[in-house]
Amino acid sequence: MMAQILILLKQSENRRLLVEYLKQYYEISVGNLTAQSKPASLLLNEPFDLCILDGVALTYLWEKIQARKQQEQPVFLPVLLITSHPDVKLITRNLWESIDELITKPIEKTELRVRVEMLLRSRRFSLQLDASLIRERKLNDLKSRFIAIASHEFRNPLNTILGFTRLLETKRNLSPTQQADFLQRIQKAARRMNVLLDDVLITIKSEANSLTLNPVAIALKLFCHNLIEEIKLSLDEPRTIDFVHEGEDNEVYFDQTLLQQILTNLLSNALKYSSSDSIVYFKVKIRPEAVVFQVQDQGIGISPQDQQKLFDAFYRATNVGNVPGTGLGLVIVKQAVDQYGGTISLTSEINVGTTFTVTLPLA
Ligand code: ADP
């Protein structure tokens, strides 16, 4: 993006020359210093990367400039003063504090350009630094929340495993059915820990923007059929998933893992949060410009208040009862959808059902 420079100069001839020259390289806004100099002080509230001003503007506006610099911290907002030698002596300490660089008249073009570039470079560095600091902080935040929840979420299945292995070890007279039952519970708990771990790792990874897309040609209809079969296999009881497919079944290019994450999470949720005798509807519409996936259930629904926070990490709605979950599935879905430049929306009504719609553009 082109750097934006705000120019606040009293002297109109200087101003014109400066604007003429700099607008070849930068986006320029010019403040009006005549009259009450109000427009200039308004411009100081708008975004810019560098402010070039003269002694007059500095005298008028130094408080505003300092406030603006403060407000941008820790990001560096450079101010360049254009001055003549006699001015320099007149400038008081207060005014100095608002300035990062000065250039004396008559202005030499190359020198001006170099100074401007140096200041803008510092600005860019500090912007980058700030962005990575924010990302780092978000990631740290997520990690500490994970540690808090992990101790809680991991403990249940872990206790199950420990408990039943101890029983298997110590109880002499277990029937084969009991043994099989215990083993199944252990396996289920282990699987749950596996899912939890996967979810957390994916979330942290995609939060750190380290997921890279690897698009491959996918025959969508077949892909969805296989996915449904896979999900059904992982269920404790048989369920009906009504799959409808609209449009040409041409191959589409998507990252398999991401697509699988999106659909598996939505379908599992639809199954998890509805009664076992209800049907889950899964519709895929292939359009020339995008693919629309719709997952509809007749389950417990989501209240309007809960809908607002649904995509926050670890958030679970108040009506989940004892349905197990991590509150990470939809975070993963949202991140995957965002990576595609797609959209996700939902409509829901308590005790009636929920419909999630994901639209992924076909690049
Ligand atoms: P979880 O592992 O808890 O299912 P998700 O991130 O997948 O986590 O979903 C977050 C929350 O959104 C769930 O805890 C649940 O409250 C709500 N939710 C998601 N899908 C549905 C659905 N189909 N029906 C009702 N509630 C849902």
From TrEMBL:
It comes from Halotia branconii CENA392. Its EC number is 2.7.13.3. PANTHER family: SENSOR HISTIDINE KINASE RCSC, TWO-COMPONENT HISTIDINE KINASE. Keywords: Kinase, Phosphoprotein, Transferase, Two-component regulatory system. The keyword Kinase applies. It holds the Pfam family HisKA. Photoreceptor which exists in two forms that are reversibly interconvertible by light: the R form that absorbs maximally in the red region of the spectrum and the FR form that absorbs maximally in the far-red region. It catalyses: ATP + protein L-histidine = ADP + protein N-phospho-L-histidine. PROSITE patterns: HIS_KIN, RESPONSE_REGULATORY. The modification 4-aspartylphosphate is found at residue 54. InterPro entries: CheY-like_superfamily (IPR011006), HATPase_C_sf (IPR036890), HATPase_dom (IPR003594), His_kinase_dom (IPR005467), HisK_dim/P_dom (IPR003661), HisK_dim/P_sf (IPR036097), Sensor_HK_Regulatory (IPR050736), Sig_transdc_His_kin-like_C (IPR004358). GO terms for molecular function: phosphorelay sensor kinase activity. It is an enzyme of class 2 (transferase). Residues 4-120 form the Response regulatory domain. Residues 149-363 form the Histidine kinase domain. This is histidine kinase. The lineage of its organism: Bacteria, Bacillati, Cyanobacteriota, Cyanophyceae, Nostocales.
